[in-house]
Amino acid sequence: MILMGRSECGKTTLRQALKGKKIQYEKTQYINNFDVIIDTPGEYVETFKFGRALALYSYEADVVALLVNATEPFSLWHPNVAPVMNRPVIGIVTQIDHPMANTEQAIQWLRLAGADPVFPVSAYTGEGIWKILEYLREPGDVLPWENAEAAEAPREILSAKGEALTFGQEDYTFI
Description:
The chain has about 180 residues and is of the alpha/beta class. The chain is built from seven helices and eight strands; from the N terminus they run E-H-E-E-H-H-E-H-E-H-E-H-H-E-E.
């Protein structure tokens, strides 16, 4: 699966959550292949010249995942962009647990782009992670967790944009 989305929409954090890793802020500087996940820099979606590289890398993946952060005021994805990918295209709405999230709007944007199905997720709480894993699962796959409860448990968060984070309170508290 290749993850595509604007800068800071949660691609790398989602990759860490899908792999069962601790959440730690990392800026993706170039296209990275991690076993079965291709993580891409947001600048590739945001810059026309780099967009061609995404098109080429999409041919290396079985599934293309278009990401939209639930707090974004607009979508970078054009209507009906999914058929250009020539691969199954899913949508992933990240940061659904944020106080300013508008999850339904983000879902509509991804559906308009042609993504189907669309998965709302939180990498921090684990909500929705299992549904993505089940969708991607092929016979013989070994997943990081054995069941939905383990996959959707809150993650250990080492840092969020360079700070340690306590999650699950009314607001985000940096410690």
